Amino acid sequence: MKTQVIISGAGPTGLMMAAQLCRLGIDFVIFDKKEGITTFSKALGVQARTLEIYDEMGIAEKAVNEGQIATNFKILIGGELQGGFDVGSLGSKKSPFPYMLILEQFKNEALLQDYVLSYNKSILWKHELVDFEENENGVEVVLKSAEGQEISISAQYLVGCDGASSPIRKKLGFTFEGETFDQFFYVVDTALEWALTYNSDIHVCLAKNTFVAFFPMKGEKRMRIIGMLPEGKTDKDNVQFEEIEAMLKREIDIPLKMTDLGWYSVYKVHTRMTNSFHKGRCFIAGDAAHIHSPAGGQGMNTGIQDAYNLAWKLGMVIKGFANETLLETYNEERLENAKNLLKSTDAIFEAEAGSGWFTSFARVHIFPLFAGFLFKREFVKKAMFKLISQTGISYDKHSLSQDDMPDDKINAGDRMPYFNFEDENGQNQSSYGFNQDLQFRLFYFGNDNLQNIVSHNNSFNETLQRLKIVKIDLDKNRSIIEEIFGEVNSPFILLVRPDNYIALQTSDISVNKIKEYLIEKVGIVHA
Ligand SMILES: Cc1cc2nc3c(=O)[nH]c(=O)nc-3n(C[C@H](O)[C@H](O)[C@H](O)COP(=O)(O)OP(=O)(O)OC[C@H]3O[C@@H](n4cnc5c(N)ncnc54)[C@H](O)[C@@H]3O)c2cc1C
From 55, 166, 237, 354, which residue has the greatest number of CB atoms within 10 Å? Predict the structure, then answer.
């Protein structure tokens, strides 16, 4: 069997990788040792950045309809409401999805699986990776089916989306350093009877030695409960659900009754990451490259972003549009992102669950005093949304970013800002309405008729099919543009990458400038 890309593992990361390769028209084989998509709820939080990608694929509306938008975050201590804030519009005007969606992992996987199947591609379930070797032409991979039959596949590239114990990461010799927290955590999906609100409110109950969080799920009175087992509980298999129920009632001082128990699990929290995402023709992505506490609901979303970052680069190299050096930027960008992610999830986790005397004291005595004040501040809300929603990720210091206007509020390497503008026909358009085909796009902010660029546009055909040009008239849209970019004194352009990050920001409106960028930074052949 021959293909262009082999994807090992069909969790959310592998399925997103497959989905993006479908969009790009790249041939692939995806397989997983499991029988099918997960049946567990596992990851629950779907962040704005993931929904923005779903939107390009035409599956965001379905995701939102099948999930539950979280609208309020409420903090309780000793059964009393201490404060809270609105999270339903936290990212208002910053994203078409200014909230966190609660949608179980199995529903996300089902959406992605359906998307892949809609391209007449199949997923080889019950096939396990046996071995792989890289040679000068590509990678040879050996799989074993459930019936014991061995299958050899050759491909140009291999992507290991094979989870935290990734055999591919191990064989590549990458490290996975970090730590495992001593205490055990539990997760319970259940219907719940209590006097507090349901539907869309997240409740977090803080106590000196612990915390318990309740996340609303779609369905009658359904909740996800997450908390910590008391210190000293070390034998995972000996923790009964009844013990957890009793402990929960004791600790948070809120009368409640769990009925219709769904998924229940006890687990340990790790914080670990790889030292590399890429070697030769092999890559790793998702939990294979980084694992951390569930604080902030980042894990599944980060795997999805890894796949999205790598897919367009693989697409350009496989189609012969760009040199292989482009693939090195995957490691450069996503390794740093993983480092930042571990720092932020560790910090949130320490505040929620740390057992040091100061953290315990601050959690119940200091934090509630300031929470109400802090969460009313616009800058705090903005910073929180940027961090949790993953819309604040920036590659501004990296080799694909070139900024000739560094003093602006937006830098090359930032995600393309989301805004609405009036087009030349007087129609209202979204800056996010132009990326159905995963191509580079050119946003021109000015009043000229763009002859200079448009007349030369054909020269891009060979490498970029057509460079889509979006003109944003400054006279008609000045107030929104200045709100986002700062004062604008002259026309400028943004060249935007297929994954919606700004590649080039410059006031030099010329074809040569764009060609120079594409050749030097992206390694485009024949620009
Ligand atoms: C209780 C809990 C709550 C969580 N909450 C959140 C949340 O709110 N938000 C969030 O973003 N994340 C959350 N996460 C994390 C999230 O579940 C993971 O980050 C996500 O599953 C990672 O996806 P993945 O595809 O990278 O890896 P996985 O889902 O682990 O998939 C890897 C796949 O590779 C397959 N595989 C492994 N080895 C082989 C082999 N040799 N051959 C073939 N196939 C193989 C496995 O069968 C598996 O299907 C949570 C996790 C847990 C457990």
Answer: 166
| CA atoms of 64 and 43, how far apart (whole Å) | 15
Residue 21 region by backbone torsions, left for phi larger than 0, else alpha for psi between -120 and 50, else beta: alpha
Pocket test for ligand 1, best of 6, 30, 33 (most atoms within 8 A of CB): 33
Residues 17, 12: Cα–Cα separation, whole Å: 9
pLDDT in tens, the chain (527 residues): 899 999 999 999 999 999 999 999 999 999 999 999 999 999 999 999 999 999 999 999 999 999 999 988 888 888 888 777 788 888 889 999 999 999 999 999 999 999 999 999 999 999 999 999 999 889 999 999 999 999 999 999 999 999 999 999 999 999 999 999 877 888 999 999 998 988 789 998 887 667 889 999 988 899 999 988 776 666 666 777 777 788 887 788 888 888 888 888 888 889 999 999 999 999 999 999 999 988 788 999 999 999 999 999 999 999 998 999 999 999 999 999 999 999 988 787 766 666 665 566 666 666 666 666 666 777 777 888 898 999 999 999 899 999 999 877 999 999 999 999 999 899 999 999 998 888 899 999 998 766 555 555 555 445 444 678 899 999 999 999 999 999 998 999 999 999 999 999 999 988 888 889 999 999 888 65
- Block residue for tokens 């390497």: 413
C-alpha R_g of the chain: 24
Rounded to two decimals, the pTM is: 0.94
Alpha helices in 291-439 (DSSP H): 299-318, 328-353, 357-361, 367-374, 378-389
Q: Ligand 1: which atom is nearest the Cα of residue 45?
A: 8
Distances (CA, A) of 52 to 189, 371, 402: 27, 29, 24
**All domains in the chain, ordered by first residue:** 5-67+102-174+276-328 (3.50.50.60), 402-522 (3.40.30.120)
Cα–Cα dist 251/227, whole Å: 10
State the Cα–Cα distance between residues 523 and 102, nearest whole angstrom. 40
Place of tokens 């030695």: 209
Q: How many helices (H) and strands (E) does the chain have?
A: 15, 28
Interatomic CA distance for residues 379 and 99, integer angstroms: 16
Q: Reduced to 3 states, what is the DSSP secondary structure of residue 418? A: coil
In angstroms, rounded to a whole number, what is the distance separating the alpha carbons of residues 104 and 163? 18
In the reported structure, the alpha carbon of residue 300 is separated from the centroid of ligand 1 by a whole-number distance in angstroms of 7
Residues in Cβ contact with 254 at an 8 Å cutoff, skipping those fewer than 6 apart: 76, 79, 194, 195, 196, 205
Please tell me if the CB atom of residue 294 comes closer than 6 angstroms to any atom of ligand 1: yes
Which atom of ligand 1 is the closest one to the Cα of 127? 43
Distance 109 CA to ligand 1 centre (A): 10
